[in-house]
Amino acid sequence: MDSATILAAGLWGLLAASSLLVGAAIGVFCALPRKVVASIMAYGSGVLIAAICFEQIPEARRLGGDLPTLIGMCAGGVVFVLASQWLEHLQQHRRNTVGKGSILGLLIAAGAFLDGIPESLGLGLGLLDGGSVSSMLLVAIFLSNLPEGLASASGLREEGHSRRWIFLLWGAIVLLSGLAAMSGPALFADLPPHWLAVALGFSAGAVLCMLVDTLIPEAFAETHALTGLITLAGFMTALAIGG
Fold it and tell me: Model-level pTM?
């Protein structure tokens, strides 16, 4: 695989993940009303659901069939749940004083990490054999990353983390996403396709658990009956883009 293709994959991965930093900057420097943040979270949830339904899972099944896809989804869900439980255990003493939402920021960041790496890998693999990056997946990742970064940064601020710590966290996730995109054409060109199916399934499983455990409940707490319509709007946006 030539270096130009690998570099292009990395740049696409960085572009898709860059909205995490944009969202984090908005969350850190702008005191947005909670309903606005919740609405963005609901909208991003709809975008993510569409990307999972129409890009990740179908592509995983095409590459490796049902079994690798299901194995990956199960692994992604289990890893996210274990990570969330670990974070909750670490901050148990804060939950007694701050409340249930005290680890929201870290949970969303964990979900973004578990979701973003395989997604970026999938972007890079689109360039194999003269292929192109999926426009729907690219836009879906970019749009969904924005509310993830915003909501997480807002939560991390409430948890008492410094601006420097927040930007270092998200900067590391963005950098790892770019490297994951580069690793697609660099490392996976000669591997059996079922391994990519496992990776894409892992991403889908992790993000579904993150949506149900964190983004959607937090959005519903503020937007109530409008949550479904806002989520639907995000879903329809991704569907229209994917055309």
Answer: 0.77
